[in-house]
C-alpha cells in the first residue's frame, strides 16, 4: 500500500487484476455470443470400418466472434465451466445437435447418431435426464440417434450420482460413451459397472508415433469387445493407422484422414452423396 510501483507484490497484483479483467470481458462476450447466435456446431463424421458407411457425427462447438475468426472450444470452454455459463451453452448445443440430426433424417438420408460432448457441470446438473428427454421430444429426434460423451475423469469422480444418471439415460434410449479414453485414471471396476456403450480411444494413442501405442490400442479394442462395448478411434490421420485399426477390428474411426469437422451445409452434401 505504501508505494504504487517497484515491488513484486504490486506487479503480481496488477497481473491478477488484468487477468480478472480479461476473464470478465470474455465472460461478457460469451453471454452475448449465446444471445446473439454467434455459436455454431461443426460435425465430424464417424465411419464404420465394417460397412465403410458414416454411422455417426460428433458435434463440435465453434464460436464465430464478430471481430475475430473462429475461436476453438479449448479457448473458452474452461471459462464457461468456471462461470457456469456452460449450462446455457450446453443446452443450446444439445438442442441444436438434435434439431440438425432430425433435419438430416427428414431429408431421407441414412440415419446417423449425433454425439454431443458434455462437461462435468452439465453432467452433474440436477434434472439433466429430464432436460435431455424434453429436448428429444421437442426436436422429434429418436433417443437412439443421440450419444452423450463424457470423459473418463468425470465418470470416476462422484461415482454414485454418475451411475444413476447413466442408467436413466440408457433407460431413455440415449447412448453414453467415454471420451479421451486412456488419458485419465481408468479403473476396470467402473468399466464393468457403468452402462457405457462405447469407448473413444484418445487420439494421442492413434497418431503419436510411440512404440507402445499399438499395444495399448490393441488391448483397449479387445477389452471393449469383451465388455460388450463398441470402440472408436479418434484422430486417425493416415492410411497406415486406418489399416492397423481395421486389422485389429476396431469398430469405427474418426479423423482428418476421412474428414475434418465440417459446417452443417458441407456435412449435408457429404450425407447426400453417400446415401
Ligand atoms: P474432443 O471431444 O476430444 O474432440 C476431438 C477434437 O479433435 C476436436 O477438436 C477435433 O477437431 C479434433 N480432431 C478431429 N480429428 C482429428 C485428427 O485427425 N487429428 C487431430 N490432431 N485432431 C483431430 P476441437 O473441435 O477443437 O475440440 C476440442 C475439445 O473441445 C473437444 O475435444 C471437447 O473436449 C471440447 N468441446 C468441443 N465441443 C464441445 C461442446 O459442445 N461442449 C463441451 N463441453 N466441450 C466441447
Ligand atoms: Ca469428444
Ligand atoms: Ca476425444
Ligand atoms: Ca478432449
UniProtKB/TrEMBL annotation:
* Included stretch of the parent chain: 377 to 651 of 651
Ranges for domain EAL come to 23-275
Write the protein's name.
Answer: PAS domain S-box-containing protein/diguanylate cyclase (GGDEF) domain-containing protein
Q: Which domain of life is it from?
A: Bacteria
Amino acid at each position: 500500500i505504501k508505494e504504487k510501483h517497484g515491488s513484486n507484490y504490486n506487479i503480481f497484483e496488477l497481473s491478477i487484476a488484468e487477468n480478472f479483467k480479461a476473464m470478465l470481458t470474455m465472460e461478457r462476450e460469451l453471454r452475448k455470443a449465446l444471445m446473439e447466435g454467434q455459436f455454431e456446431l461443426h460435425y465430424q463424421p464417424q465411419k464404420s470400418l465394417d460397412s465403410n458407411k458414416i454411422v455417426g457425427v460428433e458435434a463440435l462447438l465453434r464460436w464465430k466472434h464478430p471481430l475475430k475468426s473462429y475461436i476453438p472450444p479449448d479457448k473458452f470452454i474452461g471459462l464457461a465451466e468456471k462461470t457456469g455459463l456452460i449450462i446455457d451453452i450446453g443446452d443450446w448445443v444439445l438442442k441444436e445437435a438434435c434439431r440438425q440430426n432430425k433435419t438430416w433424417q427428414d431429408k431421407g438420408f441414412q440415419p446417423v447418431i449425433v454425439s454431443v460432448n458434455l462437461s462435468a457441470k452439465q453432467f452433474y446438473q440436477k434434472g439433466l435426464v429430464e432436460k435431455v428427454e424434453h429436448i428429444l421430444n421437442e426436436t422429434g429426434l429418436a433417443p437412439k440417434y443421440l450419444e452423450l460423451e463424457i470423459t473418463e475423469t468425470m465418470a470416476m469422480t462422484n461415482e454414485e450420482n454418475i451411475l444413476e444418471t447413466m442408467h436413466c439415460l440408457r433407460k431413455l434410449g440415449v447412448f453414453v460413451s467415454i471420451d479421451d479414453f486412456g488419458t485419465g485414471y481408468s479403473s476396470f471396476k467402473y468399466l464393468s459397472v457403468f452402462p457405457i456403450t462405447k469407448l473413444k480411444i484418445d487420439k494421442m494413442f492413434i497418431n503419436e508415433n510411440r512404440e507402445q501405442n499399438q499395444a495399448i490400442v490393441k488391448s483397449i479394442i479387445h477389452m471393449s469387445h469383451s465388455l460388450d462395448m463398441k470402440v472408436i478411434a479418434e484422430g486417425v490421420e493416415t492410411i497406415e493407422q486406418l489399416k492397423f485399426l481395421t486389422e485389429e477390428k476396431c469398430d469405427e474411426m474418426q479423423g482428418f484422414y476421412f474428414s475434418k469437422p465440417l459446417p452443417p451445409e458441407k456435412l449435408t452434401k457429404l450425407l447426400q452423396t453417400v446415401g
